[in-house]
Amino acid sequence: MKLTKNRQYTVRLMAPFNMRCKTCGEYIYKGKKFNARKEDVENEIYLNIRIYRFYIKCPRCLQEISFKTDTKNTDYEIEAGATRNLKALKLAEEQARREEEEAREEETNNPMKLLENRTQQSKNEIELLESLEELRDLNRRQEIVDYDLMLKQYNREDEMKRILEMQQKEDEETIKSMRLKHKRLQKGDTKIREETIETMEAPAKIKKPNTTKMEVSTSQSARNRTKKNILSNIIKRKLPDENVSKPDMEGALDVYQNHIKFRSDILYQEAIFRATS
């Protein structure tokens, strides 16, 4: 079965643009759905792409409206039955395109016109650069400079003072800890002395038993021996603590204080050297 060459097909489509019917004046808005007839346009091809024509009917008066595809401009072109609305933007774009094409043709044909256009562009660029420089100068004049912040950023004396204060605090804390240790050692010596006194008084408080003279003499000799042993132990314990511990602690404190003073002097001299340099 052979089909006709230019056969029409019924398709469902939406209005591609806003239009107005010529007979009744009905407005047909973009996106309104229609049952349309589609056919190929004879003897019209653009880059081997077929061009199609569509037929719709006005929803009010049933007047036939036809439009076709415009593949060159990727748009639709109305043919009969209605007029296109809001066409100002499209006309403006077409006019701008024509003006650009005319200017290009004129430049290619007339080299003096090309030279004039280039000189005008260079003048415009120079004027723009001058205006930018003027705006920068105005902004610089209106800027408010905070000199205090600038001086604080580049002044290092405050930082050195803060560092010295922190070091002094650390040195004071270490001195306090050394003094506490020295006091604790002194308290330990006093406790040892009290214990020795108690041990010496303890045998004196023992009551003498009512026995014979031999027992009394033996008890006295035993007491004397215990006293001698206790005294010898006390002397052995006390001599190293009294003769060695106290002088060593006092000397260590003096040495540490001198070291701290020497260290603070060096840091202060370094801070002055950095500030001057």
From TrEMBL:
Pfam families given for it? Saf4_Yju2 (PF04502)
Which GO cellular component terms, listed alphabetically, does the Swiss-Prot or TrEMBL entry include?
U2-type catalytic step 1 spliceosome
The record ties this protein, via InterPro entries, to: Saf4/Yju2, Yju2
Q: Any idea which UniProt keywords this protein has?
A: Coiled coil, Metal-binding, mRNA processing, mRNA splicing, Nucleus, Spliceosome, Zinc
Q: Where does this protein hold Zn(2+)?
A: 21, 24, 58, 61
Where does it primarily localize? nucleus
Coiled coil stretches, renumbered? 82-132
> Where does this one sit in the cell?
Nucleus
Q: Which GO terms are recorded in the biological process aspect for this UniProt protein?
A: generation of catalytic spliceosome for first transesterification step
Membership in a protein family: Belongs to the CWC16 family. YJU2 subfamily.
Q: What does this protein do?
A: Part of the spliceosome which catalyzes two sequential transesterification reactions, first the excision of the non-coding intron from pre-mRNA and then the ligation of the coding exons to form the mature mRNA. Plays a role in stabilizing the structure of the spliceosome catalytic core and docking of the branch helix into the active site, producing 5'-exon and lariat intron-3'-intermediates.
Report quaternary structure and partners: Component of the spliceosome. Present in the activated B complex, the catalytically activated B* complex which catalyzes the branching, the catalytic step 1 C complex catalyzing the exon ligation, and the postcatalytic P complex containing the ligated exons (mRNA) and the excised lariat intron.
Protein name (Swiss-Prot/TrEMBL): Splicing factor YJU2
The scientific name of the source species is Glossina brevipalpis
Q: Print the organism lineage.
A: Eukaryota, Metazoa, Ecdysozoa, Arthropoda, Hexapoda
